Amino acid sequence: MQDESKDLKKRTIRSFVVRGGRMTEGQQKAYDNNWQIYGLDFENGPIEYKNIFGRESDVVLEVGFGMGASLVEMAKSAPEKDFIGIEVHPPGVAKLMMLAAESGVHNIRVYCHDAIEVIEQCLPKAKASAFQLFFPDPWHKKKHNKRRIVQPIFADQVASTLKTNGQFHMATDWEPYAEHMMEVMEAQSNYDNIAGVGNFHPRPGWRPLTKFEQRGEKLGHGVWDLIYAKK
């Protein structure tokens, strides 16, 4: 019988580097004060969305939300939906929870853990309505391209969380990575490009513009959105 732990390691994509993980005193306080409300512990294992949020709803998953402002804004703007963010950067998790508390947002929860392990071991199968991956590390150097999170294995892992017609939404401001995302996703047999084969998608109005993105627009930098529906 094959060793499942070895198999998991083979399927795990380490696409991130935890930078600046040490929190300030204020960030630690925000983390400690809000974790019981918003935090989900990886060690607790599999979850059911209805049990977490106390209702049946469309659930949106997001990996790598940074400092969390756009995810909190989306949750605030769509109270009928529920959101789960996954981030390995503790200061970002602390900031998201603080923003959610300040905004009175209750339809959001967060993991501070590796997304691949959370997907594999905690999230329900075929129940989420959307999966968001916005501005992941592009790993510019060619020798590091293999570290990009958008790979065929990851696309399959995302598909495992989505219900039929659930959407996998990506965005990047690095054109070579956008092309890489397109190449990977167009080769998938379990997704349809909702903008049509080979086409990028206009930025949906419900995806907030980040400050970083706004600065880039002023400098003439492009942003590419891709949205695929699970078959």
From TrEMBL:
Molecular function per GO: tRNA (guanine(46)-N7)-methyltransferase activity
Keyword tRNA processing: yes
GO cellular component, one term: tRNA methyltransferase complex
Region (Interaction with RNA): 143-148
Annotated residues for binding of S-adenosyl-L-methionine: 62, 87, 114, 137
Record key words, sorted: Methyltransferase, S-adenosyl-L-methionine, Transferase, tRNA processing
Reactions accelerated catalytically: guanosine(46) in tRNA + S-adenosyl-L-methionine = N(7)-methylguanosine(46) in tRNA + S-adenosyl-L-homocysteine
Pathway field: tRNA modification; N(7)-methylguanine-tRNA biosynthesis
Enzyme Commission code: 2.1.1.33
Highest taxon, organism lineage: Bacteria
CDD domains, alphabetized: AdoMet_MTases (cd02440)
Pfam families: Methyltransf_4
InterPro entries: SAM-dependent_MTases_sf (IPR029063), tRNA_(Gua-N-7)_MeTrfase_Trmb (IPR003358), tRNA_methyltr_TrmB_bact (IPR055361)
Amino acids binding substrate: 141, 173, 210-213
Family listed: Belongs to the class I-like SAM-binding methyltransferase superfamily. TrmB family.
Its biological purpose: Catalyzes the formation of N(7)-methylguanine at position 46 (m7G46) in tRNA.
Protein name (record): tRNA (guanine-N(7)-)-methyltransferase
Organism of origin: Marinomonas mediterranea (strain ATCC 700492 / JCM 21426 / NBRC 103028 / MMB-1)
Taxon lineage: Bacteria, Pseudomonadati, Pseudomonadota, Gammaproteobacteria, Oceanospirillales
